[in-house]
Amino acid sequence: xxSVTYSMNVSLDGYIVGPDGNFAWTAPDEETFRxxxxxxxQVGAHLLGxxxxxxxxxxxxxxxxxxxxxxxxxxxxxxxxxPKVVFSTTLSAVQGNARLxxxxxxxxxERLRAEPGEGDIAIGGATLAAEAAxxxxxxxxxxxxxxxxxxxxxxxxxxxxxxxxxxxVETHTFSSRVVYLRYRVAS
Length: 187
What we know:
Elements: E1 4-11, E2 15-17, H1 30-40, E3 43-49, H2 50-56, H3 70-79, E4 84-87, E5 98-100, H4 105-114, E6 120-124, H5 126-134, E7 140-146, E8 154-155, E9 166-173, E10 179-185
Parallel strand pairs: 1-6, 1-7, 3-4, 3-6, 4-5
Antiparallel strand pairs: 2-8, 7-10, 9-10
């Protein structure tokens, strides 16, 4: 069965976006960006909330940006054809290889798991991840912890009163002092 993963950059105090909506502190260096590229290669479908979808729209046409280096062009070449499901109550249409979710989150994940295909089902965005976590649908949590305290904002971990035991699968410290943590939900 395809795993459902939740992977985001996070401040050391637990936020994916600061109180002012800024996440410029997550700009990756080359090594960290390479790790994102390696991770996205393992994804077969990506579920996104509206805000993250709109942020990632740039990559649908990034291959036309002459200022991009080879690593960014490689990311764009992987991201653009990747099937995406967007959860939004305000969008009426989406672009690229994306579709608006026609059902609830659990139904969409069930549908994707039933379809032929390989690769993880990735969830992007804290709000969508919170819903998936509340339903017990996340198999792995992956965080790139940045050495910064932003003091508030949108938290990485869902604020639910539900205990989830995790097993450490992998860790890596990048030269930029960003620490990658990969946890599997304990059975």
